[in-house]
Amino acid sequence: MLIRKILRRARQMCPAAYRIQKLSLIWACTLLGGALLLLESALPLTTATYGAARLAVELIRTSSAVLLVGVIGAVFVEERHL
Predict the structure, then answer these.
(1) Each residue of 29-44: b (16+ CB within 10 Å) or e?
(2) What is the reported pLDDT for 29?
(3) Tens digits of per-residue pLDDT, 68-81?
(4) Residue 6, class by beta-carbon neighbours within 10 Å (0-12 exposed, 13-18 middle, 19+ buried)?
(5) Using an 8 Å Cβ cutoff, are 81 and 14 in contact?
(6) Is this model's pTM higher than 0.85 or not?
C-alpha cells in the first residue's frame, strides 16, 4: 500500500526532519480537533453561531497549510542533512 511506503520512508529520515513531520502532524490534528469541537457547538447554524462556524472552517484550512509547511520544512532539513 502507498501509505505503508510513505510511513516507511518517513522513518528513514534524519531525526530533525522526522521531528518536524511528527510535530506538524500533531499540530494539524489538534487544529482539526478544535474545528470539530467548534462545529459541534455551532450547530444548528444561526446568526449567533456563525462566527464559530467560520472559525472552524478556517481551522480546517489552516491544518492543511501546517501540513504543507511541515513537509516542505522536513524536505529542506533532509536535503541539508545529506
Answers:
(1) eebbebbeebbeebee
(2) 94
(3) 999 999 989 988 87
(4) exposed
(5) yes
(6) no
